[in-house]
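Chapter summary example: a protein plus zinc ion.
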Amino acid sequence: MGSHYLFNCPGCGYSAEVSGGPDGGFSSQTETRVCTACREVVDVLVGFREPALIQPEDLNRCPECEGRDLLPWGESRPCPRCNGAMGDPIGPTRLWD
Ligand SMILES: [Zn+2]
Ligand SMILES: [Zn+2]
């Protein structure tokens, strides 16, 4: 069961509803990354429990722009817009899969 949390940036008001780290649902595995093209924190598909269901090229892509300009989201949870710390999340706000 994967769960989403709401992260808010107190500096600029940016918010993202993501897992905040490695997560997994019934069939998929995700990790939270920063897309440098979108300047968004996104959950990226990194694996499937049934490998036959997925093409390798579908993994590690931004769900917004399908790009691969992804960076790990650091421990301090930096905001992709202003680089301030986004702090502790609210939630879980949503359970997925
Ligand atoms: Zn993107
Ligand atoms: Zn910010």
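Key point: The chain has a mean pLDDT of 93.
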